[in-house]
């Protein structure tokens, strides 16, 4: 039987939420990943070092017995974040970055940034301290077509920002377009990008196959096939500027299966397996290790993991749903379908 042993991978973009939801989803990540960058878009958001450290304690307390997992924390940037908060964050070993949500761009982004010039002193401090900025890269102008919002963000926001602060380390999160791939490939080495498994496996047809598919709706929204192909080419390229970030985003089933369903795809239940599937389809399984296990750690200046994980090429059926606490459930990606890889003894 075909097996693949890798260093234990890391997830450089993850939503864990809090409370019972966190307790329900965390085991999926702990089974697969050694570390994960935990997104701060709780309600209310995690905006201070003290809040991030308290949130980290809650995550650590929820790690199942015997699990070894390090949550890496982020702060949610608001127009009121003082530069001193960045200094405090940079003094903590547990806080790895600051997250920029353009206000209104995505789930729980209302407290985000409306006008980038208002956070410029904070961004200057981050550049000075070497604190990475993690970016949800979409403009929010309702007049801009939703499929163009990432490209427009790169042109109108990211390019001028990197020109103004060339020292700033930036991760363009969950990229979805050929333009983003080209931009990151040709930019300076302070810029990297994460890529989700769902953007490697699906194009926008998945939103409408046989009817509207709320469980395939995320932001940035799935794009055309040419973009999926460009993302896959970047992921398997061996370039250290592209690395794994699942953006696994749990939402209760009823909030997605709704007249106004919310954005986010849940992949933590099978994250590394889904990436293995994408890399295998591209004939590039040997490139999975760099993408999933090395490049993110290198970019963030952390040691690579020494423990290993083994994937077995054996298919299994994904449950229709998982419990999410408080009587709710979530519908994972590929619900009721099959995945061709599983974790050994997982
Ligand atoms: C994320 C969530 O649910 O928190 N949703 C999503 O569609 N990706 C937010 C985000 O990462 O933009
Ligand atoms: Zn986002
Ligand atoms: Zn996200």
Structure description:
The protein has helices spanning 19-32, 49-62, 83-90, 120-129, 149-164, 178-186, 197-201, 225-235, 253-256, 271-281, 288-300, and strands at 3-7, 10-14, 35-38, 70-76, 95-100, 133-135, 170-172, 191-195, 242-244, 308-312, 316-317, 322-325, 328-330, 338-339, 342-343. With 346 residues, the protein is of the alpha/beta class. The chain has one domain: Metal-dependent hydrolases (TIM Barrel, Alpha-Beta Barrel), CATH 3.20.20. Strands 2-3-4-5-6-7-8-9 form an eight-stranded parallel beta sheet, sandwiched between helices. Strands 1-10-15 form a three-stranded antiparallel beta sheet, with no helix packed on it. Strands 11-14 form a two-stranded antiparallel sheet.
Count of β-strands: 15
CATH superfamily: Metal-dependent hydrolases
Radius of gyration: 19 Å
Proportion of residues in extended strands: 15-25%
Order of helices and strands: EEHEHEHEHEHEHEHHEHHHEEEEEE
Q: Give the tally of structural domains.
A: 1
Distance between the termini: 16 Å
Strands across the major sheet, in which order? 2-3-4-5-6-7-8-9
CATH topology descriptor: TIM Barrel
In short:
The chain is an alpha/beta fold and 346 residues long. The protein has eleven helices and 15 strands. The site of one zinc ion (ZN) has 4 residues, from loops.
Name the features.
eight-stranded parallel beta sheet, binds N-carbamoyl-L-aspartate, alpha/beta, 346 residues, 11 helices, single chain, TIM Barrel
């Amino acid at each position: 039987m075909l097996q693949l042993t890798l260093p234990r991978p890391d997830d450089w973009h993850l939503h864990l939420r809090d409370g019972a939801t966190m307790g329900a989803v965390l085991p999926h990540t702990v089974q697969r990943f050694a570390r994960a960058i935990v997104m701060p878009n709780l309600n209310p958001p995690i905006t201070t070092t003290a809040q991030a450290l308290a949130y980290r304690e809650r995550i650590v307390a929820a790690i199942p017995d015997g699990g070894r997992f390090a949550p890496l924390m982020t702060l949610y940037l608001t127009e009121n974040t003082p530069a001193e908060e960045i200094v405090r964050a940079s003094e903590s070993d547990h806080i790895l970055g600051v997250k920029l949500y353009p206000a209104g761009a995505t789930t729980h982004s209302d407290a985000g940034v409306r006008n980038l010039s208002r956070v410029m002193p904070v961004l200057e401090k981050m550049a000075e301290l070497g604190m990475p900025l993690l970016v949800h890269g979409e403009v929010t102008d309702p007049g801009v077509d939703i499929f163009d919002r990432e490209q427009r963000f790169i042109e109108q926001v990211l390019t001028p920002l990197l020109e103004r602060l060339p020292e700033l380390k930036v991760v363009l999160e969950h990229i979805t377009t050929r333009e983003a791939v080209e931009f990151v490939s040709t930019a300076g080495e302070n810029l990297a990008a994460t890529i989700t498994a769902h953007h490697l496996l699906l194009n926008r047809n998945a939103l409408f196959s046989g009817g509207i598919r709320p469980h395939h709706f995320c932001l940035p929204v799935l794009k055309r096939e040419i973009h999926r192909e460009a993302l896959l080419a970047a992921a398997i390229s061996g370039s250290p500027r592209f690395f794994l970030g699942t953006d696994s985003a749990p939402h209760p089933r009823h909030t997605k299966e709704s007249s106004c369903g919310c954005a986010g795809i849940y992949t933590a239940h099978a994250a590394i397996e889904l990436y293995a599937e994408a890399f295998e389809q591209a004939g590039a399984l040997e490139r999975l290790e760099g993408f999933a296990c090395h490049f993110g750690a290198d970019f963030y200046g952390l040691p690579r993991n020494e423990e290993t994980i083994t994937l077995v090429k054996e298919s299994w059926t994904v449950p229709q749903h998982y419990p999410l606490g408080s009587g709710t459930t979530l519908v994972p990606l590929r619900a009721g379908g099959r995945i061709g890889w599983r974790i050994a003894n997982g």
